[in-house]
Every structure is written in structure tokens, then in C-alpha cells.
Fold this protein.
Amino acid sequence: MNKDALVQLDHVTFGYDRRRVVLHDIAMAFPRGKVIAIMGGSGCGKTTLLRLIGGMLTPTKGRIMFDGEHVNPRDREALFRLRRRVGLLFQFGALFTDLTVFDNVAFPLREHTELPPLMVRDLVLMKLNAVGLRGVAQLKPADLSGGMARRVALARAMALDPELIMYDEPFAGLDPISLGVAANLIRELNDATGGTSLVVSHDVRECFKISDYVYVMSAGRVVGHGTPAEVEASEDPEVRQFIRGEPDGPVKFHYPAKPFVQDLGLSA
Amino acid sequence: MKQLDLLPRLGIRALDVLRGMGHATFFVIDLMRNSLSAITRPFLTIAQIHAIGNRSLVIILASGLAVGFVLALQGYYTLSRYGATASLGLVVALSLVRELGPVVTALLFAGRAGTSLTAEIGLMKAGEQLAAMEMMAVDPKARVLAPRLLAGIISMPLLAAMFSAVGILGGYVVGVLMIGIDPGAFWSQMQNGVDAFDDIGNGIVKSFVFGVACTVVALYQGFEATATPEGVAEATTRTVVISSLLVLSLDFVLTALMFSAPG
């Protein structure tokens, strides 16, 4: 076991049922204080991996360790203790729609600390200021754009200064300005807090720019890993196809199906 | 061959039903346990009493008034055949506090507040809000469901009491003000014939039981809804159907237990 790793996955296999195995024998280690990117095409199991680390799913085989402790969804008390040290930024933010932006960010502070209201207010405004959205504190999530909602969710995820922040597709659907700002924010936050960041994305350029280490996944398997420079220089055909965005290669664009002419009823 | 398939299919179906019942039982036990701890955070429950109880007031009061009007008209028609129209107040009051108050309130509650609870929880699930809460180490059953259950349990008897009170006023308007029954007879017959413990007390027990049943069904359906628009729509429909059937069958059982031995 790697003692420097905050999170370690030991030969993790997971399937939603026996026929649908999503992850095959995944072995990963995320060192402390680093930004790690997990990249791969849609449906390769990236989000499932985050949910496994967060204890929302149980591996079919293998085990996941967080700071030397087994992530076991069946032991709820230990799991909740562990989750206080982890922040997860959901792909669509998952903000509480009945609460204001301010109350959303204050939520974890009010639930897990006994801080006086004035201190909660200051902390919330600091977190919102870090994501550039102090000015929308009193708005409801429905009044925000998708990108803004995700930035508020980021402020909420880091409210308790977690040791590990996991980002699920943080760049999807962002305009170029927000995308650059979001990428820099992840890096700066990581360096400022000394935490560990796990970014799940298929945005090659931004991930290479901000990460220290990259895992490339395809069809539920790790097909390549290394520093961004090492991955970029990889000769593996699947890694090359992914980072260059080539339509043809070992990963097929079309989902397996019978010949098109047969579907159209044109074959003899 | 198809007949041979029938048996395993029935077995699978029976196992599914049993599994569902077991799952629901664990859900209810877990919810009840969390409700005890929710008592320590009364502000969450008070906010839900406002959402569930106060916002159901208009439909409950309007329905209570209409039921009171009709009860008085029908009651007068029947009682006048036996020359017992002075008992109209008693008939209206007993019908309301024993049966119509708790039952109709519960049915309206299932339609008004139950559907709203199911849709709210189901959409929170679809929007990953419950998952986000779990990831923040906050149990959604304790933070979201338990205060709503307590609010439902507290609101239902109060709403039923208001339904009955307004219904009696409706009976008074039709019976005394419109038909012309003696107001003294209307109120005194009611006062003598309605027992605080046997009639009003049992009515409160009924509405308490219905409050638990309707709220648990609504919360369970929302929490277990498939996280899609169709899934939430189906769950909302199931809430009304299951709650209504449950209220009517529980009413029969409770009435048999409470009122089967006169005196």
C-alpha cells in the first residue's frame, strides 16, 4: 500500500448488475497535495469511479482506501465521518433549490459546526468571493446560469475546507472565459489549501494544463497514466486516439449494432 | 410451455412484493428513528407545518363548509320523516367528528400535501440534491424526511378539527339560518350527544393514524421514485392511490375497534 496516497483503489471492479460491469480491475493512487485528472470518453466509468470513492456505491471486487481507512458504505457512521473530509462537485451542481445561494454554501457549516451566525456569514462570503459570486448571495439557484450554479456548488463543496475535492465534469458546458477561470480556480484552490483534487473530465487541454498526474480510461479500464507530458507522448493507440480526438481508432464511435443496410431492410 | 412458465413468474412476482414490503418496513423504522432526533430541531418541523398544514387550509376549510351544508340538508330530509329535526346538530356533529372530518381531511391531505411532498422529494432526488446531502455527510432522512413526517403528523389532526368545526358551522347555517331549526335545540342536542372522549377523542386518534399513513406513503414514494420526470409522475399518482385506499381501509378497522361496542 502506498502510504503517501490519500486515496488508493486496489483492483476495484464494479457493475450495476452481473451483465453490466462498468469498471474492471482499477488500480489507482492519488498522492496528497496533487491535482489528479481522470480522463476518458463519455460512459467510460469516470463518474461511477467518483461515486465509489465517495462511498455512494460499493465495489463488486477490490477495496478503496481513504487516508488508510477502508471506504465502506455499509458502515454509515464511519462513512459520514470520512465524507466530512471530502467535497464532491456534482456535474450539474445539485444545489438545494429551496435555499438561497448563501444558505446553500452555509448548509454544511450549519450542519457540522457550532459556529456563530456572524462567523458563518463571513466564511460563506469568503467562499463565494473565491468563486466570484458574492454578488448573487441572495438569489435562488433557479436565477443562476448553469456555469454560475456550478461555481456556487464549488463554493459549497469547499465550505468545510475538505482534504479531497472531487470535481465531476467541471468544464462541461462552460463558455471559454468561465472555463479558463474554473480551471485556474481548481489549481489555485488546491495549492492554497494544500488539499488534493480529483478532476473527472474529457477536456484534454484544461486537464493537461492544471493536473500533476493523469489517468486515461476507456471502457472501464485504465489504458494509460502518467504526468501530462508522459500521457501526451504515449504510444498507446487508445490514449493517442483520445487525446487527439480522432474519430477512428480502437474506440469505435458507433455502439455495436447489426449492419445499417440490414436495419433499413435493404439487404437480401 | 406457457402454463409451466406461470409458476416461476408468480414466484418471482411474490418475491418482488415481499422484498418491496421488507424495504418499506426498514424505511419506516429508519424514518421513525430519525423523527425522534428531528424533535431537537423544531424550526425545521415548524417550516414544514407551514408548507403542509397552512397551505392546505383553504381546501380543507372550503370542503368542510360544503360537507357541512350537504350534511345538514340530507340530515334534515331524513330526520323530518321521523319528526326529529331537533337532532340535526347532533347528527351533523357526530358524522363530522367521528367519520367525515378525519377521513375526508385525510383524502384531501393526500391529494394536496401528499402529492406535493412526493413530487418535492422525487425532484430533489432527480436533481441529485439528496445525493449531494449524503455526500456532505448529512442524512436526508433526518434532514429532509423526518421534519416533514412530524409536520404531517401534527398537521393532520389540526386540519381534521378545523374541517369538523367549519362543517358544523356549515350545518348551522343551513339548518338554523336557512331552514329555521331552533338554534337552542341545535346546539344543546349536540352538547348532550357528543362525548369528548368517545367521539372527539377517537376522531383525533383516527386523524393521527391517517396523518402517519399519508405522510409516510408520500415520503416513501418520493424517496424511492425513479429519478426521471416519468418516475416522479408515477410516484405522485401512487401516493394518491395508495394513501386513499390505506385511509379507507384503516378507517374501517379503526371504526370497528372504536365504535363496535356501544355504551
Remarks:
- The mean pLDDT of chain A is 87.
